[in-house]
Each structure stands twice: as structure tokens, then as C-alpha cells.
């Protein structure tokens, strides 16, 4: 019941001001966000790298300002250089929201985002790693996939996120199931209309399994981004049925969610990657985590009060 209002609030500047000014928000956000700066986030990355893989997200989205988009590119370049220096190029990649690097800028937004995405992919390649483009609301999918196609011409390991709740996704999985392709399959975190998306949880789960089947049958590299125990079990069964070894696909979860399960999968010899966000533009990301599980609000508020 709270999902829709929380997702609407995620895009409201008034709500943002209120939430950011609430004294206990910082402590609640720190469960999901590894730090306000790269320096604050890196210790968590080093700790996770002992048994897991990582993808780092410099938080930000819906940028309407060219200098902010350029600043985001610089932040990723600095991050990638730091990962290279720390010898983490084989453990950590980066995740990028194209709206943070200019996709929605009025004049030539898509062209600017493409150039900026290329610059980040170049910096990733220099330290032996790669980039995955996050997927935002459904209006951005065509543009994001078009940019992906162009970037992959020079950086073929660049990956994309597909959202199982979108009705188009099974077909998109088919298009992106070829050799060299990397697809992170998630359920989807935005409030989408019935016309383009399944809205019933059971329908979304069924769509997730259909999309996963396509990816596991294909020649690409499936990235199973879900905390759902059923999806995780089904992914393991499908991988085995298609003769995929532990290095031929991976599991992915968000920082701060089901840490015990992450450790368990890694200890079983599975590839487990954690999505680690950092930065001070945490509002939209944080609100989507609350919308996925509104009990987070009550649980965390209670734990803070009784500390
Ligand atoms: P659910 O059925 O929602 O959850 C299953 C179980 O996981 C829950 O019962 C609960 O135990 C646990 N859980 C799930 N969410 C939470 C939470 N917030 N807090 C605490 N426990 C929780 N979405 C996009 O739209 N675009 C993206 O680019 C994108 N990238 C992602 C990258 C990664 C690596 C992951 C893991 C998710 C990403 N998502 C993205 C979010 C995704 O779409 C879902 O909203 C989110 O993962 C919840 O779906 P679920 O598969 O875990 O299943």
C-alpha cells in the first residue's frame, strides 16, 4: 500500500527536503549507502572484496545541469583510478545511471550521455574492469539500450540492466542474449503503468523466471540481481540445466540487504556481487529501498528509538 506514495515521494523535491532534514535519516540511510564520499565507501569495498565481487554506484540521477553531468564523469574516473591502484580491477566494476551523465539534458542529452558513458568505459578498461548501465523508468529504456549498443562497439563487455516487470523485457533479453553480452536482470524498482508493466507481484515473479530462462539458454553472461530466495534457487537450477559453471553467471544483491545470504552464496563458491552505492545524492535510491520494503521504515525507526 505504501509502495506507490513512497515512489511518488522519491521524485518530489518537497519530500526530499523534509526527509533530508529529519535528524535520524542519516543513520537509516547508512544501512544502504556505504558513505558520502569515495574515501568513506572504500573500506566497505575492501571488506566485501575478501569473499565477494562489487559494483560501485556514484549516486545521482535526473541531472539537468551539464556541469553536474561532467562532475559525475570525473567522480567515476577518480573512483576507477582508485580501484586500479588498490588492485581491485578484477573484483570491482561500476554501475552508471545514464540520467546522471546527461541523458535528459535539453539539447543533445542522448549524445552527451553517450560521450560521457564512453569516457567512463575507457577509464574502466584502463584498470581492467567494466561498466554496467542501470535502468531507470520505462521512458528511458529505448535510449539506454541505444547508447549501450554504441558503447559496446568499442567496449563490448559493457553491461545493461533489464527489469522483469516490463512487458517488453523478455524480448529485450532475447536481443541481448548473444555472446559477450552481460545482462543484470532485476525485478524493477519504479512505479510503472499497467500498460507497460506487470504490477502484480506474482506476475512479476513469473516474468522474472521467463526472462532468466532466455538469458541462461543464451550465450551471454547472466547477472541474477535479486534477494528473492525463490529466484536464487531457480537461477541455480537453470544454470545447472544449461551446463553453466560457477564462472558463467553471477548473483547480485544490494549493499545492506540479506548480507548473510550473500556470505552463504560466496562460501558455496558462487560468484556473488554486491551493488555498493555512495555519495550524497542518496535520496532517490534510499526512497526506492523503502518502497521495496516499507517495513524498513518502522524497523529502523524502532531500532533507533530503543538504542
Ligand atoms: P522482492 O520480492 O522485492 O524481495 C525479496 C526479498 O528480498 C524480500 O522478501 C526481502 O527479504 C528482501 N528485500 C528486497 N528488497 C529489500 C529492501 N529494500 N530492504 C530489505 N529487504 C529487501 N531496479 C531498477 O529498476 N533498475 C536497476 O538498475 C536496478 N539495479 C539493481 C541492481 C542490483 C544488483 C539489485 C540487487 C537490484 C537492482 N534493482 C534495480 C532493484 C530491483 O529492481 C528490485 O527493486 C529489488 O532488488 C527488490 O527485488 P527482489 O528481486 O529482491 O525481490
UniProtKB/TrEMBL annotation:
<dbReference type="Pfam" id="PF01619">
    <property type="entry name" value="Pro_dh"/>
</dbReference>
<dbReference type="InterPro" id="IPR015659">
    <property type="entry name" value="Proline_oxidase"/>
</dbReference>
<protein>
    <recommendedName>
        <fullName>proline dehydrogenase</fullName>
        <ecNumber>1.5.5.2</ecNumber>
    </recommendedName>
</protein>
<keyword id="KW-0274">FAD</keyword>
<keyword id="KW-0285">Flavoprotein</keyword>
<keyword id="KW-0642">Proline metabolism</keyword>
<dbReference type="InterPro" id="IPR002872">
    <property type="entry name" value="Proline_DH_dom"/>
</dbReference>
<dbReference type="InterPro" id="IPR008219">
    <property type="entry name" value="PRODH_bac_arc"/>
</dbReference>
<feature type="domain" description="Proline dehydrogenase">
    <location>
        <begin position="45"/>
        <end position="301"/>
    </location>
</feature>
<comment type="pathway">
    <text>Amino-acid degradation; L-proline degradation into L-glutamate; L-glutamate from L-proline: step 1/2.</text>
</comment>
<keyword id="KW-0547">Nucleotide-binding</keyword>
<dbReference type="InterPro" id="IPR029041">
    <property type="entry name" value="FAD-linked_oxidoreductase-like"/>
</dbReference>
<keyword id="KW-0560">Oxidoreductase</keyword>
Amino acid at each position: 500500500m505504501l509502495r506507490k506514495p513512497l515512489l511518488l515521494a522519491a521524485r518530489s523535491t518537497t519530500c526530499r527536503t523534509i526527509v533530508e532534514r529529519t535528524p535520524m535519516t542519516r543513520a537509516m540511510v547508512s544501512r544502504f549507502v556505504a558513505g558520502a564520499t569515495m574515501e568513506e565507501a572504500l573500506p566497505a569495498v575492501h571488506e566485501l572484496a575478501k569473499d565477494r565481487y562489487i559494483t560501485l554506484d556514484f549516486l545521482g540521477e535526473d541531472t539537468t545541469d551539464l556541469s553536474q553531468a561532467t562532475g559525475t564523469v570525473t567522480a567515476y574516473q577518480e573512483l576507477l583510478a582508485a580501484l586500479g591502484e588498490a588492485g581491485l580491477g578484477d573484483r570491482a566494476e561500476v554501475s552508471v545511471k545514464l540520467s546522471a551523465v546527461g541523458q535528459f539534458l535539453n539539447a543533445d542529452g542522448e549524445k552527451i550521455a553517450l560521450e560521457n558513458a564512453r569516457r567512463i568505459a575507457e577509464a574502466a578498461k584502463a584498470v581492467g574492469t567494466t561498466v554496467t548501465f542501470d535502468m531507470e523508468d520505462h521512458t528511458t529504456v529505448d535510449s539506454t539500450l541505444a547508447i549501450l549498443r554504441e558503447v559496446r562497439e568499442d567496449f563490448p563487455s559493457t553491461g545493461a540492466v533489464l527489469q522483469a516487470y516490463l512487458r517488453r523485457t523478455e524480448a529485450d533479453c532475447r536481443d541481448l542474449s548473444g555472446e559477450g553480452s552481460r545482462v543484470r536482470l532485476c525485478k524493477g524498482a519504479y512505479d510503472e503503468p499497467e500498460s507497460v508493466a506487470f504490477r502484480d507481484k506474482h506476475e512479476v515473479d513469473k516474468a522474472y523466471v521467463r526472462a532468466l530462462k532466455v538469458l541462461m539458454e543464451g550465450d551471454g553472461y547472466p547477472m541474477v540481481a535479486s534477494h528473492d530466495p525463490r529466484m536464487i534457487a531457480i537461477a541455480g537450477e537453470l544454470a545447472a540445466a544449461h551446463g553453466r559453471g560457477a564462472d558463467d553467471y553471477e548473483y547480485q544483491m544490494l549493499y545492506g540487504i540479506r548480507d548473510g545470504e550473500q556470505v552463504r552464496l560466496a562460501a558455496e563458491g558462487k560468484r556473488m556481487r554486491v551493488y555498493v552505492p555512495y555519495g550524497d545524492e542518496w535520496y532517490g535510491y534510499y526512497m526506492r529501498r523503502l518502497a521495496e520494503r516499507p517495513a524498513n521504515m518502522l524497523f529502523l525507526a524502532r531500532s533507533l528509538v530503543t538504542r
